[in-house]
Amino acid sequence: MKQILLFLFSLTVSAQAEKGMQIKDTLAPKLENIKWISGNWKGEAFGGQTEENWSEPSGGSMMATFKLINKGEVSFYEIEIIREIENSLVLQLKHFDNDLKGWETKNETVDFPLIKITPTQVIFEGMSFEKVSDNEMNVYVDIKNDNGEVEIVKFNYKKSS
């Protein structure tokens, strides 16, 4: 019996230590803590080339443009922002065809509320950024496939000069 109690006690201490580390590694929801996302990024996804250009934080937000090129032609664009709202961050975006006709209605955005920030991750509900190095990051996006199932699509980006 003593061994079982000791085992349960060590599991509890271990779980509390892990929680403490998570709290310690979690950063405040401030743009300054995610400025490593800023820059000009290039990669490949959906069978084509991608470009994503993020501004430095200013005016309570960061903004980005995204472009997917397939077979030498633009497939679609996105305008994205991350802004500070009510002591948190939210990522919002709008999609556009190659002729800038919007996918969402005039007053509609696709919103991703913040879950948490660590020194190397920014995790929003449905989209996350992972810092691999100063010149490489991964972006993971939840996308519904034709069957209605959610797939996680990985975009690997390298920072361009």
Would you kindly provide a written description of the structure presented here, covering whatever features stand out?
By secondary structure, the chain is mainly β. It has a single domain, classed as Lipocalin (Beta Barrel). It contains one helix and ten strands; from the N terminus they run H-E-E-E-E-E-E-E-E-E-E. Strands 1-2-3-4-5-6-7-8-9-10 form a ten-stranded antiparallel β-barrel. A hairpin with a 5-residue loop joins strand 9 (136-144) and strand 10 (150-159). It starts with a helix and ends with a strand. Residues 1-23 have low confidence and may be disordered.
Overall 3D shape: globular
Mean pLDDT level: 87
Q: Give the N-to-C terminal Cα separation.
A: 63 Å
Enumerate the spans where pLDDT stays under 50 for 5 or more consecutive residues: 1-23
The percent range for strand residues is over 45%
Radius of gyration, rounded? 19 Å
Protein traits:
1 helix; 161 residues; disordered N terminus; Lipocalin; ten-stranded antiparallel beta barrel
Topology (SSEs and partners):
Blueprint: H1 2-25, E1 39-45, E2 48-54, E3 61-70, E4 73-85, E5 88-97, E6 110-118, E7 121-124, E8 127-133, E9 136-144, E10 150-159
Antiparallel strand pairs: 1-2, 1-10, 2-3, 3-4, 4-5, 5-6, 6-7, 7-8, 8-9, 9-10
Summarize the structure.
It comes from Psychroserpens burtonensis. The protein has 161 residues and is mainly beta.
